[in-house]
Amino acid sequence: MTEPTSSLSHLDVEEREKPFLDANELVINMGPQHPATHGVLRVILRLDGEKVLGLECVIGYLHRGVEKIAENRTYAMFNPYVDRMDYVAAVSNGLGYCEAVEKLLGVEAPPRAQHVRVILTELNRLTSHQLWLGTHALDIGAITPLFYTFRDREEILKIFEKYCGARLTTHAFRIGGLQYETYDGFEKDVKNFLTFVAPKIDEYEELLTTNRIWVERTKGVGILSGQDCIALGVTGPVLRASGVKWDLRKAQPYANYKNFDFEIPVGQNGDTYDRYLVRMAEMRQSLRIIQQAVDALPEGPIMAKVPKVMKPPVGEVYHSIEAPKGELGYFIVSDGSTQPYRLRVRPPSFVNLQALDKMCRGQLVADVIAVIGTLDIVLGEVDR
User: Fold this and answer.
1) Residues 356 and 313 in one domain
2) Does the pLDDT at position 118 exceed 90?
3) Quick one: which of 38, 204, 316, 334 has the fewest CB in 10 Å?
């Protein structure tokens, strides 16, 4: 049996099985060029044949120094940079940052702005989950869901484009409120989309939920218990699929979520199949929230009174939101100047990724692909 390399010494398993037919353990790379690693993730696998004994994630290929850039930009100038972290959920990134600075300044966005923020953020949650579902199914071998989800996601991107001119890195919010007032026909477009997409989600489930191949590839794969999730800091759908009913929109309401009626979907087994079911249920809950928000959209201003030159008082703040992938938090330290003294992001993809080793031990190589997909990571957010 070959000795593991020094960088992999922490991958030692407690009880090593005897090599099969005197075969040695293999240490191989999956990625960073592998299409199923969802960007530029390098996974060093230690295998006994097809069985995974342990793995190590190597990240940093997409590092752009976003947090350091914040120290050299004003609060308003840094706002568009956060859209480029989780570029699939740019609206959520912007909401978390704007609310963190607003908390530092002691201001609150007007009711109309908060309602529009909820509508756009939940639409963004749908686009993120649709992209996840299409690519996750593609990784496992089903190509049709990719066409379906991208077809339907396009309708949300059209609303984003009409609102602020961008489709992917959607810069929708300003510190204190909104960048733009809603365009003529915004409410009608949103309501039409809700009517259009509700039966489409049923189509996704018809394709996959009882599909024999899908069930065999996902049930019992990548199991993570609720206790393990809490110990590893895992949040979002991965945590809820393990039976922990924790959603910041309910636990620590922000952006007017306390006024909306919705449920928190939870799973029981904490496997890849449960994480799929939880996200499908979340998409339906997002439609429910959007319907309530657009029906009760108030009139009024879209910006609070914010000084043109922002100099928050000396202090620090941590504010987090329920992004599509989990808890997205911003820790900002102010020294009283126009620029943050320190800004630190708590990205859900980065924290959730550390559970990959725990989830994959004892699985097959093909299951690693399914587990990476079910975590729903974006490397722009992991590396920053």
Assistant:
1) yes
2) yes
3) 316
